[in-house]
């Protein structure tokens, strides 16, 4: 007998049911989302407009910032809007679209962070071959492969979920539609699909994380033979990337490297890779990078001077 889907919308419980706390969350996450947009846009514009920031590292960083903007936009606007209403609902189609977008962009970010680690490995361990290996064509191919890999991964997750029957209840104890909370609501046995989710999302997160750890161990071993100045510069760049990797991969592994079970802590943990990391990325990559800070000062000081000149010319009486 064929099972049908009787659910047309889902009710999200969000981060809290307390009305006073929700008002605080509204202003807090509105601020976070604004920082995400402005911070990542600042990095993208600075890299695109600065002639000094034309290395593969900054090429990948600009795409990482773009993915961060898109990724946070999947969940943050809905989270902010839901903080103002008592009953938080999302249509079935909207829920599936949010699931697809979150996994598509989240997995793309995982692959981009792995590619950035490979770039640092080649730059430090094989400096004489760096320009040959990391040429423009190779960098573009790596970015394209990251997008395709994220799309294929998300497509698998979404197709597995949409083929499940949902006949009620329709309450999701989360602030966005994710695969584990949806599997919990399905009116059928989801054990096998839960294992596939672990093998898909969990193993991608874990395997990429292990690749990153091994690459940085090799980098640290290689740096022992470098001068103190070169070692400090390389370590500064790598430290920024390692910080982002830990903040992003740790929560992902915690949530997706287990069967389809949910914990009350999952919502708070998910904030790290959906909002906190995209917000901190611009700060981490700029505060620890003198080249980016210098390029920002030069670019935006020129912009400010140009704006003042235009304003002066406009205001001078004819």
TrEMBL record:
Cellular component terms (Gene Ontology): plasma membrane
Q: Which InterPro entries match?
A: GPCR_Rhodpsn (IPR000276), GPCR_Rhodpsn_7TM (IPR017452), Olfact_rcpt (IPR000725), Olfactory_Receptors (IPR050427)
Domain G-protein coupled receptors family 1 profile: start-end pairs: 39-285
Q: How does it sit in the membrane?
A: Multi-pass membrane protein
Which keywords does the record carry? Cell membrane, G-protein coupled receptor, Membrane, Olfaction, Receptor, Sensory transduction, Transducer, Transmembrane, Transmembrane helix
Family membership noted in the UniProt record = Belongs to the G-protein coupled receptor 1 family.
This protein's major location comes to membrane
Q: What is this protein called?
A: Olfactory receptor
Tell me the superkingdom of the source: Eukaryota
Source organism of this protein record: Sphenodon punctatus (Tuatara)
**What compartments host this protein?**
Cell membrane; Membrane
């Amino acid at each position: 007998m064929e099972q049908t889907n009787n659910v047309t919308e889902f009710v999200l419980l969000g981060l809290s049911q307390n009305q006073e706390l929700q008002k605080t969350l509204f202003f807090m996450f509105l601020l976070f989302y604004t920082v995400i947009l402005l911070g990542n846009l600042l990095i993208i514009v600075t890299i695109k407009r600065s002639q000094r920031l034309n290395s593969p590292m900054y090429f990948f960083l600009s795409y990482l910032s773009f993915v961060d903007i898109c990724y946070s936009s999947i969940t943050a606007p809905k989270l902010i809007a839901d903080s103002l209403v008592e009953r938080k609902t999302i249509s079935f189609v909207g829920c599936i679209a949010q699931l697809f977008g979150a996994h598509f962009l989240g997995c793309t970010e995982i692959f981009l962070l792995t590619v950035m680690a490979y770039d640092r490995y080649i730059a430090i361990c094989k400096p004489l071959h760096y320009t040959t290996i990391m040429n423009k064509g190779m960098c573009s191919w790596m970015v394209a492969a990251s997008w395709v890999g994220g799309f294929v991964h998300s497509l698998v997750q979404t197709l597995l979920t949409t083929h499940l029957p949902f006949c009620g209840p329709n309450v999701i104890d989360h602030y966005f539609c994710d695969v584990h909370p949806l599997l919990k609501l399905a009116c059928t046995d989801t054990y096998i699909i839960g294992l596939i989710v672990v093998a898909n999302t969990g193993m991608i997160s874990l395997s990429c994380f292990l690749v990153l750890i091994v690459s940085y161990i090799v980098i640290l071993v290689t740096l022992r033979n470098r001068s103190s100045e070169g070692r400090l510069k390389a370590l500064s760049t790598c430290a920024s990337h390692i910080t982002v990797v830990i903040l992003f991969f740790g929560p992902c592994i915690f949530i997706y490297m287990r069967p389809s079970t949910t914990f009350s802590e999952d919502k708070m943990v998910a904030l790290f890779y959906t909002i906190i990391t995209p917000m901190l990325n611009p700060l981490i990559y700029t505060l620890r990078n003198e080249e980016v800070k210098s390029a920002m000062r030069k670019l935006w000081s020129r912009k400010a001077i140009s704006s003042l000149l235009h304003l002066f010319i406009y205001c001078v009486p004819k």
